[in-house]
Amino acid sequence: MATALRRSALHHCLLAAGARMSPVGDWELADSFGDGQAEAQELQTGVVLADASAQHLLLAQAHDLSAWLPSLPPVGQVALIANSGSPVRCCRLTDDSALFVAASLLVLPPAPGSCGHVTNLTSGRTIVAVAGPRSLDLLRAATQVDLRDRALPDRRCLQTSVARVPATIIRYDRLGVRAYEILVARDVGEYLWDALLDAGEPLGARPAGAAVLERRD
Question: What is the C-alpha to C-alpha distance for residues 178 and 182, in angstroms, rounded to an integer?
């Protein structure tokens, strides 16, 4: 029997907005909202929002995290870590915690003794990507934290609030433009999506398929 595809918390609101859904791996994703080329153009000139929830998330926590996982970057930084499948992004949140973000299932080595533990956050988080030259303008309307290049350059992360809900922001630029991934609890995913679209309306922000962040045509 075929395994059911995973769906993000934004699935139904994306359908209502006209998303064309496609299976990618074990997820059902919004491929586009009707015009992939227009979305790609807007990514390069304005700002788009995309559902980036189709990623596997593991939170590792330990008092001596670096002894358990010695390849971690410094706090607040994001590093690519080699994996047998696709590369894994490691986001060092605090001295004692790190978030691993991967396109495919990821397994961390066991912690020595009982000094650490891993929590699978994949089903409990919504990830909204805000990308394009005007993404910073949009986020200025949604959060008070300084996200300018000098405060949050590429491959940096922080924990803050966006649209008044707790969030983790990962700066990870794509295709030559700035891009932010905003992680929130699954139950406020639709609220965040709507709040960011409202904040981006004066800028002409538009929803886009997840593929727009990767395609190079």
Answer: 13
Pick the CATH number of 11-54+123-213 from 3.30.1360.120, 3.30.10.20, 3.40.920.10, 3.10.180.10: 3.30.1360.120
Q: Which residue matches tokens 């980036």?
A: 52
Could you read off the pLDDT of 61-74 as tens digits, one per residue? 999 898 899 889 99
pLDDT at 217: 35
Helix (H, G, I), strand (E, B) or coil at 159: strand
pLDDT tens sequence across 42-52: 999 999 999 99
Average the pLDDT over 144-156 and give the result: 97
> What are the DSSP calls for 73-133, one per residue?
PPTTBEEEE--SSS-EEEEEEETTEEEEEESS---PPPPSTTSEEEEE-GGGEEEEEEEST
pTM: 0.94
Residues 6+ positions from 147 with CB-CB distance below 8 Å: 136, 139, 140, 169, 171, 180
Contact 29, 22 (CB under 8 A): yes
- The CATH 3.30.1360.120 domain(s) of the chain lie at 11-54+123-213
> To which H or E segment does residue 156 belong?
strand 156-162
Predicted confidence band of residue 215 (pLDDT cuts 50, 70, 90)? low
CB 131 within 8 A of CB 40: no
Give the 3-state secondary structure percentages of the chain, helix then strand then coil, rounded to 5. 25, 35, 40
